[in-house]
Amino acid sequence: MVNPPLALLAELTHRCPLRCPYCSNPVELARASAELSTAEWARVFAEAAALGCLQVHLSGGEPTARRDIVEITAAAHEAGLYTNLITAGVLLDGALMGRLAAAGLDHVQLSVQDAEEAGAERIGGLRGAQAKKAAAARLVRDAGLPLTLNAVVHRQNLHNLPALIDLALDWGAGRIEVAHVQYYGWALANRSALLPTRTQLDEATRVVEAARAAHRGRLVIDYVVPDYHAARPKACMGGWGSRFLAVSPAGRVLPCHAAESIAGMVFPSVREVSLHDAWYQGEAFGRFRGTEWMPAPCRGCAQAEKDWGGCRCQAFALTGDAAATDPACTLSPHHGMLAAAVAEAGGAGFVYRGA
Amino acid sequence: MIPRFARGVRLQEDKARGRWIVMAPERMFVPDETALEVLRLVDGARDVDAIVDALAARFDAPREEIAGDVRPMLEDLVEKGALTW
User: Fold this and answer.
1) Which domain covers residue B77, as residue numbers?
2) Engineered SS bond to A22: which of A28, A30, A181, B33, CB 3.0-4.6 Å?
3) CA angle in degrees (0–180, nearest 5) for A192-A198-A203
């Protein structure tokens, strides 16, 4: 039995003023001219709500790079979805924040690349970004909206994790996501410079646990651990085609935002099929749903319905076979690749988009 | 003490699944029947005593027993960031 999805990731555009070396967007970006229109997004939101989605994450790229972001937010709100804006914050001003709040925006997730200005702006590749982010946090709070800080952490900023948590408190966030980089796309290209050491990871885990206790009731800390140091893979997306769906800037309906990185897969377009048909009848969503598709060692494994075989994109990126067991699992014959990557890591320079 | 929903948190019907949920930033909680009865009385005006009174009257149950259930439940939701007071 296939359950309806809980949340929609709406990737409104691939355009972004930042160029983080772990960018989760595809290596090949969709052009602005290929992006869905305001009316098309409104239809997608109505279909998502009818399908059972409760939340929409308005993301990108930088979603506020779209001139119709207020109309898009209003359409999501009118469809009955809980609306979450995932932004770098550098394009926000008071007038836009006011219009977004009036349009029914429920929550803002603001990214931060480091606690220190110099480090943050080197990682994000945009000078002046940190002050704009601090101002954006104030605007969100002044608008009466809840704020989550999203801190992507890695080898080159983990020493500042305590300061990142302090920054969340200073900026008035009720929640911080401490997310270790996941290695696909650009992040895979920059893996050597980004992969943390085991010592760094253990220290980060200790810092998070201490901060959770110290700020209980004031700051919620979500923690995403890096699977390169794990024994079992993450339950990516809660299972393929199980809880989430994403729509790309050009309208492709995806089981996760990185799914187009899997060569040979064809994803339907919202211009051709309904979200309902893509979810329930689409070949792409059915391909890795449940456990029937699993080869050994996943097939019959006691963990099969806990981690769902891990991440299909990671399996493809590392082994060339999207149906393989995620190499993050110690039972994968490819697991040694991860230990080798950790052992070889230590590069200092980043490869940036457009460089 | 007057409990209220935290910023960005609300009780909402999930029609597709025939239930009520607490929607929160990038999270959701599925309250059990008892918690749902309590949360329906969280309106930013009733204090804890008034919520207990309303439930005691509605379910014709001893006030102390209700209070013993309601207080830990509210404290748990405050700790999770869903409610404030």
Assistant:
1) 4-84
2) A181
3) 120
